[in-house]
């Protein structure tokens, strides 16, 4: 009789142990896929407080990959100005510099690579090296605007 209880106890212990092992494994895997974002409303706050809020047309994008990130340099022409602390004007050409981190990253949303020939609403801050992201991965909003009178060749 004692052996039956021991055998039943061992089966339950093994099932519980396997379940716990599976649960811990699932948690480890899922935690490696999670990116912690900023609190609700944080991106909108950053966009509202950006020094520059512009609609731009992308002329040129260069990206250089090193280790776990890409260094991006873009050249854009301003189509319209919503606000500008540095008094930017329509048709002015400006540089944008930012990094895209690849792989696992805990922190704010990652920026995406701008596409040449497309129009974006951008939220930027001025720095010594050019203009940088003001709202992390929410600094660029791709627009459907296809008709623009701007041309990268016309403006130098």
Low-confidence stretches: 26-35
The fraction of residues in strands falls at 35-45%
Proper CATH architecture of the largest domain: Beta Barrel
Q: How many H/I helical runs? A: 2
Reported by name, the CATH topology of the largest domain is OB fold (Dihydrolipoamide Acetyltransferase, E2P)
The main β sheet shows up as: 6 strands, antiparallel
Number of structural units classed as domains: 2
Please tell me the overall pLDDT.
82
What would you report as the Rg, rounded to the nearest angstrom?
A: 25 Å
Ends: how far apart? 93 Å
Secondary-structure-derived class:
alpha+beta
- How many strands appear in the DSSP assignment? 6
CATH class of the largest domain, named Mainly Beta
Query: What is the succession of H and E elements?
Result: HHEEEEEE
Overall shape: elongated
Q: What helical percentage do the residues reach? A: 25-40%
Q: What does this protein structure show overall?
A:
With 156 residues, this protein is of the alpha+beta class. The chain has two domains: 1-34; 42-142, OB fold (Dihydrolipoamide Acetyltransferase, E2P). Helices cover 25% and strands 36% of the residues. It contains two helices and six strands, in the order ααββββββ. The protein has helices at residues 2-33, 42-48, and strands at residues 52-66, 69-84, 93-101, 119-127, 130-133, 140-142. Strands 1, 2, 3, 4, 5 and 6 form a six-stranded antiparallel β-sheet that branches. A hairpin with a 2-residue loop joins strand 4 and strand 5 (130-133). The longest helix is centred in the N-terminal third of the chain and has 32 residues, at 2-33. Mean pLDDT is 82; it is low at 26-35.
